[in-house]
Design brief:
Alpha-Beta Plaits; about 50% helix; 5-stranded antiparallel beta sheet; alpha+beta
Length: about 170
């Protein structure tokens, strides 16, 4: 089948187009007009939504560019052998203060001698600074009538803290 160009040009003559429009009745013209109006309205809405999406994308890219890339903090348990070595070293350094392990990551620092209050506080401070890779939290702090008839007692719980390189944003 060959394409006849003369037939196409004949069909596109203004006289034939005007005749085709005259044969449309009012109902057909309303349907065609409403369809075109709906199509134009949808196209305008699509352009508006795509423009909103692009501006949201630019805003999120700007926010991601200004947000710092922070390292990841990793919490871990302290090796029980290291706590035992620390207790022995502390007992040697502060002979009037009692140091005992509590569980796998706890440490009890106590004394019954009220004259050793400053040395007891110094020992607690020293524990926190002796190894910077450990983070100690005070679970219990008592001065006066404490458990086990002790005058001063502190229970510390430790953990290791390390940092990991941040992952780049995707």
């Amino acid at each position: 089948m060959t394409l006849d160009t003369k037939l196409i040009f004949r069909a596109m003559k203004p006289k034939i187009a005007a005749k085709a429009l005259q044969t449309f009745d009012r109902a057909t013209a309303v349907v065609v007009g409403v369809s075109w109006a709906a199509a134009i309205l949808m196209m305008v809405f699509a352009i508006y939504v795509s423009s909103l999406a692009m501006s949201a994308k630019h805003a999120s890219e700007n926010a991601q560019a200004t947000e710092p890339n922070l390292p990841k903090i990793i919490h871990g348990k302290i090796n029980q052998r290291e706590i035992q070595m620390m207790v022995e070293g502390m007992q040697h350094r502060f002979p009037d203060i009692k140091f005992n392990m509590q569980g796998s990551e706890g440490l009890i620092v106590s004394t019954n001698d009220g004259n050793q209050f400053r040395q007891w506080l110094t020992a607690l401070s020293y524990i926190d600074t002796i190894k910077p890779q450990y983070h100690w939290s005070m679970q219990q702090f008592c001065v006066g009538k404490c458990a086990n008839n002790e005058l001063m007692r502190a229970i510390l719980v430790g953990e290791t803290i390390s940092f990991e390189m941040p992952t780049p944003p995707s």
